[in-house]
Design a protein that fits this description.
This protein folds into 3 domains: 2-148, 5'-nuclease (Rossmann fold, 3-Layer(aba) Sandwich), CATH 3.40.50.1010; 166-267, Serine Threonine Protein Phosphatase 5, Tetratricopeptide repeat, CATH 1.25.40; 291-374, Alpha Horseshoe (Serine Threonine Protein Phosphatase 5, Tetratricopeptide repeat). By secondary structure, the chain is an alpha/beta fold. The protein is 59% helix and 7% strand. The longest helix is centred in the C-terminal third of the chain and has 23 residues, at 340-362.
């Protein structure tokens, strides 16, 4: 079986590239995971961040079938394995651990040196990496997203991106319109929540994204039964995802509305409260975000995501470097052991801690925590 090493850019061009090599063992350098995870808090294009989330979701689903560090079987064939950089091995001459591209190349070189019966191919769309890889004798393949030059990509997506009109907003408008039409024409079919979705033609629903479909179904269900708690959560989560895709504050505010209704019925759901806190932060309500996250931590002090988010809120929302540093240090401690996903959080917390310390120094502040120790 041949070995394929994937660069970050090919996954962000098309997340399904993870499943595109049924005849190979797919190696995903740990550095790639870190680069994708950093998109969550970056100001990158919303569509790019959405693709990054898709990659993370796919990896999370695959992690439930086995250990990603040891390798898991892919549904379309082949295997996937997360490949960390071997710190005990010498870096190939000319490569540096400080450079993300170099670390990816080093993983490929180390894998090749350890023996690849069917040969090894590095897949990248980065010209510089392609040229550098060839100097190390690595076989390189470019994988452009086949859909990128399609009619829809060229004449629908890009014009909307150019004029800053998020596709999600357009889809939402269509969904709302469909809901109105559905109620007017098919109201006789909307008898109970379990059957509400049948009032919308399948041909229409098939054109919607999963998030917009969930949003439409949830809103119809709530119209039939305003006390449907599961529908409240479904609608809130759909708005959460649409906010991630579009960056729209309006979606964050709508998510908050439905999260509050849901939590009024189920106040002990700390996962949902954590999500609501994030929406408060993105809607500009840093104080409320901190307040809700504090409630979560009063119930579960070692909740990893809540601790991580609280660090972000203190850092980006208040520029409280001391409090942020303490939070990221705590997350580091909580994630020292665990699966690949846990290790990814550990790396991100360490990276954030380093950035917080550096910003504090630039601001002339001395923190009680440095380099991961108090």
């Amino acid at each position: 079986m041949r070995t394929v090493v994937l660069d970050t850019n090919v996954l962000l061009a098309n997340p399904d590239t993870l499943l595109a090599y049924p005849d190979a063992e797919v190696l995903l350098p740990e550095t790639v995971l870190g680069e994708i995870d950093k998109l969550k808090t970056s100001r990158a294009d919303p569509e790019l961040r959405f693709r990054g989330r898709e990659v993370s979701r796919m990896l999370f689903d695959l992690s439930e079938t086995g250990n990603l560090l040891e390798g898991v079987d892919l549904p379309e064939g082949g295997r996937l394995r997360i490949a960390p950089l071997d710190g005990n091995a010498d870096m190939p001459e000319g490569l540096s651990t400080r450079n993300a591209d170099d670390r990816i190349l080093a993983v490929a070189a180390q894998a090749c040196a350890s023996g690849c019966e069917g040969g090894l191919t590095l897949v990248t769309n980065d010209l510089n990496m392609l040229l550098k890889a060839q100097t190390f004798g690595l076989t390189v393949e470019r994988r452009e997203d086949a859909s990128d030059g399609s009619w829809s990509k060229r004449y629908i997506v890009r014009p909307f991106q150019r004029y800053k009109i998020p596709i999600a907003i357009l889809a939402m408008a269509i969904a709302v319109f469909a809901g109105v039409v559905a109620f007017a024409v098919y109201s006789s079919n909307l008898v109970q929540p379990s059957t509400v979705a049948t009032g919308v033609p399948d041909e229409f629903r098939d054109q919607l994204s999963n998030d917009n479909r969930a949003l439409l179904d949830g809103l119809i269900a709530l119209d039939a039964d305003p006390n449907d708690v599961e529908a409240m959560q479904s609608v809130a989560n759909a708005y959460y995802n649409l906010r991630d895709l579009s960056g729209s504050v309006a979606y964050a505010q709508r998510a908050i509305t439905y999260y509050e209704r849901y939590l009024a019925e189920r106040p002990d759901d700390i996962g949902t409260r954590t999500d609501m806190a994030a929406m408060y932060f993105y809607a500009g309500g840093t104080d409320r975000a901190i307040q809700e996250t504090t409630k979560v931590l009063e119930s579960e002090p070692d909740h990893i995501q809540a601790n991580f988010n609280l660090g972000i809120f203190y850092w980006r929302g208040r520029q409280d470097y001391e409090a942020a540093a303490l939070q990221f240090s705590k997350v580091e401690s909580l994630t020292r052991e665990g699966d690949a996903h846990t290790q990814l959080i550990n790396e991100e917390a360490a990276s954030n801690l380093e950035s917080v310390i550096q910003e504090a120094e630039e601001a002339g502040q001395t923190l009680s925590i440095t380099g991961g120790s108090i």
